[in-house]
Design a protein that fits this description.
alpha/beta; 14 helices; 14% strand; Rossmann fold; 3-stranded antiparallel beta sheet
């Protein structure tokens, strides 16, 4: 009995040391960049000393079976502790209603896209500072103003179809303040905003293949941003928590191919929403651990382990490293679809003030015939001369008193300038035509 107690204490100390070590915490989604890190970094050597004392005191026979037992037990304790630490971080995030994120469920898992807009969804963007901004998807899955009436075919012309990520969706803005709906007002037509937060070129190409023939818009407006290419070659989308697999491009003997998402997205199927706004408690965390934390961790970790094994064996192909080939494939393919359907194609460059604006990739897009290319980023930078100030203060979201940066997506002013730039380019194109 005494030996069992010593053994349990020794193993517990080793597991705690591994979990609290500076090298292990970032893997669990937790990071302490302050003075806490100083004593956390000594936890591992202390645990090693504890293990040594335990072995000396109990004098176990170091047989192969015992070593296997030790490794298995430490693995179980270490993984269990990692899940607890990771779930605690997730729990604090889920209960905090003063953070950047969502209130309500706006997306659902999809076997081809990874995730997609949930038809007729009503949710809200929440912020560390200030009021929520409500949002709504219509019955087709397009973003619309929350109070707009239901739409039906035929739609008022010209019909604009928009493909992109959160920059085109209009994250942190009301729908009516986004550039798709400002173009709707300028043209007197209809905006079909199919952009979804965290989308990349792989999803945008698939959307073009289905939505352009189905709705036959007059124009399809396709976003270009460097991160859209990143997402098309990574296999995962940015997300607040958990893994969000997406389709990705890979190299095949017959050319560039599209691989479906590596596994399904778990977060959208878990009851995370019920914890928003609750005061964190021990009982609440235990409940969260078994209803959200463990299912999320086990699902993601098992599938990632399976993915590593499949990639080592060559069953699952790795994503391509040829960004330029992805750009050529996607934008030329969408241009071909638009041409076949008699639809005008507009490509708009948005880079959010990044230094790397993807000039080489943009130059490749400019080679595509019969498209209207709008460098909205250049227009935004040029407009700073009259607005004054720096890019972040002019075009991002600031809230509170004193103002703090609440979100890095384009604000209504930026969307207005983007819409005007597209409308002006369309007017020039129409007069030339």
């Amino acid at each position: 009995m005494k030996r069992d107690i010593h053994r349990a204490v020794g193993f517990g100390l080793v597991a705690a040391g591994l979990l609290c070590n500076r090298l292990t915490l970032p893997l669990a989604g937790v990071d302490f960049p302050n003075r806490r890190a100083a004593w956390l970094m000594v936890a591992l050597p202390l645990a090693a000393v504890a293990l040594g004392l335990y072995i000396l005191q109990t004098k176990p026979r170091l047989t192969a079976g015992y070593l296997i037992y030790l490794v298995v037990l430490l693995t179980i304790l270490g993984y269990g502790g990692r899940v607890v630490v990771q779930s605690w971080s997730f729990y604090r995030f889920a209960t905090n209603d003063h953070r950047r994120g969502w209130r309500g469920r706006a997306t659902i898992p999809d076997p081809q896209l990874g995730l997609k807009a949930r038809p007729n969804a009503r949710a809200a963007h929440i912020f560390p500072v200030g009021a929520d901004i409500p949002m709504r998807f219509d019955h087709w899955g397009f973003r619309v103003p929350v109070d707009s009436p239901e739409r039906a075919l035929p739609l008022p012309k010209p019909v604009w179809l928009f493909l992109g990520c959160s920059f085109t969706y209009g994250d942190a803005c009301a729908a009516e303040d986004t550039y798709p709906f400002q173009l709707e007002r300028l043209s007197g037509g209809t905006a079909l905003n199919a952009a979804v937060c965290s989308y990349g070129l792989a999803q945008m190409m698939q959307q073009a293949e289905t939505l352009i023939p189905e709705f036959k818009p007059d124009y399809v407006v396709v976003q270009y941003s460097p991160w859209l290419v990143n997402r098309a070659v990574s296999g995962f989308a940015p997300t607040y928590y958990g893994r969000s697999p997406t389709p990705y491009f890979y190299d095949a003997l017959s050319g560039m191919k599209l691989h479906p998402p590596l596994f399904d997205r778990k977060t959208d199927t878990l009851p995370v929403e019920r914890y928003l706004g609750q005061k964190p408690t021990t009982a609440g965390f235990v409940n969260f651990l078994f209803t959200v934390g463990l299912p999320q961790a086990w699902h993601d970790d098992w599938n990632m382990l399976r993915l590593y094994a499949e990639r080592l064996s060559g069953i699952t192909p790795r994503a391509t490293l040829d960004r330029m080939a992805v750009v050529k494939t996607v934008y030329n393919h969408i241009a071909d679809i638009a041409r076949q359907q008699g639809v005008g194609m507009v490509v708009v460059r948005l880079t959010g003030g990044l230094k790397d604006k993807g000039d080489n990739e943009w130059a490749e897009i400019l080679k595509i015939p019969d498209i209207i290319a709008v460098d909205a980023e250049a227009v935004l930078l040029d407009s700073l001369k009259s607005i004054g100030g720096d890019y972040d203060h002019a075009y991002k979201h600031w809230r509170g008193e004193p103002p703090v940066l609440a979100d890095g997506h384009p604000n209504p002013r930026a969307h207005r300038i983007i819409a005007d730039a597209i409308w002006q380019a369309m007017s020039v194109w129409a007069s030339d035509k």
